[in-house]
Specification:
CATH architecture of the largest domain: 2-Layer Sandwich
CATH superfamily of the largest domain: Pseudouridine synthase
CATH class of the largest domain: Alpha Beta
GO molecular function: tRNA pseudouridine(55) synthase activity
Largest sheet: 9 strands, mixed
Function: Responsible for synthesis of pseudouridine from uracil-55 in the psi GC loop of transfer RNAs.
CATH topology of the largest domain: Pseudouridine synthase
Family: Belongs to the pseudouridine synthase TruB family. Type 1 subfamily.
Helix content: 10-25%
Strand content: 25-35%
EC number: 5.4.99.25
Number of domains: 3
Distance between the termini: 15 Å
Enzyme class: isomerase
Length: 302
């Protein structure tokens, strides 16, 4: 079994819970997920099986798309709907669509974020959520992330009330905390806010339409239709440039050989080597030897 199983992660389970469940259903240990989803967030979670575990980091590093909801009026300890209230300031004016779109424009592009205390980021060898559970506040590293696109999903012109909620879709880079983005949206509108719901609708090239639920995975296995569950590794590398190589060169690439740089080498840091439409290795320019390329990862060598 080698390939990518696009799983629709249910709310209430951790990403690790899903991996454990898939290992048990498929009866194989070589299983890994491609980027943690919070327990209360549902959505697309590509699971790598067999040889595909070699490219898990590439799927994790790819862009993600989420659909969520911001609620203005109060903030929480976890920046989502499951934490305790921290600051409560009733919305005392009308919120217009125009000003929300203006805020979205300000948050599009490269921005800096400080991860929430309830997150898996490590500080001094310990997860932030471990400090948070002990009531310890620590200095958190600021990181740069990229918001490719931020859209308003609701059809409205004005909203009012003590709390105001609206839905959005965001396309973003690895490392983006959408909970924190919701808080930042609120700050720019002048109110405490939190993320009241979130679903991941795309990871790399995988969408909800590709996904199976855990129940559907079990059904396919019971019917001996495991191959229907697994998509090719190449889908997880679709965003990287590719070069097609011949049989002779393929043997050298499978053995991890260093090669002369191709005349048409793409202006990218990493390139997928394809043979018969199968990804067999990922190469990059040698950092110390101009004109030479070297393997970053050999994917297929048998």
């Amino acid at each position: 079994m080698n390939g990518i199983l696009p799983l629709w992660k249910p709310r209430g389970m951790t990403s690790h819970d899903c991996v454990f469940k898939i290992r048990k259903i498929l009866r194989t240990k070589k299983v890994g997920h491609t980027g943690t989803l919070d327990p209360e967030v549902s959505g697309v979670l590509p699971i790598c099986v067999g040889r595909a575990t070699k490219i898990a980091e590439y799927i994790t590093a790819s862009g993600k798309v989420y659909e969520g909801e911001v609620t203005l009026g109060f903030s929480t300890t976890t920046e989502d709907a499951f934490g305790e209230k921290v600051v409560e300031t009733p919305v005392d004016r009308t919120i217009t669509k125009a000003e929300v779109l203006s805020v979205f424009e300000k948050l599009t592009g490269e921005i800096e974020q400080t991860p929430p205390m309830f997150s898996a980021v490590k500080v001094k060898g310990k997860r932030l959520y471990e400090y948070a559970r002990e009531g310890i506040e620590v200095e958190r590293p600021t990181r740069k992330v990229h918001i490719h696109k931020l859209e308003l999903l609701d059809s409205w012109e004005e909203k009012s009330g003590s709390t105001v909620s609206f839905s959005f879709r965001v396309s973003c880079s690895k490392g983006t905390y959408v909970r924190t983005l919701a808080v930042e949206i609120g700050e720019l509108l002048g109110f405490p806010a939190h993320m009241s719901s979130l679903t991941r609708v795309k990871s790399a090239s995988f969408t909800k339409e590709n996904c199976f639920t855990l129940e559907e995975v079990q059904e396919k296995v019971d019917l001996l239709e495991i191959s229907d569950l697994l998509l090719p590794m190449e889908m997880g590398l679709s965003y990287l440039p590719k070069i097609l190589i011949n049989d002779t060169l393929a043997e050298r690439v499978k053995n991890g050989a260093r090669l002369q740089k191709f005349p048409d080498w793409p202006d990218k840091s990493e390139v997928v080597m394809l043979h018969d439409d199968k990804a067999i290795a990922i190469y990059q320019e040698h950092p110390e030897k101009p004109g030479i390329i070297k393997p970053v990862k050999v994917l297929f060598n048998d």
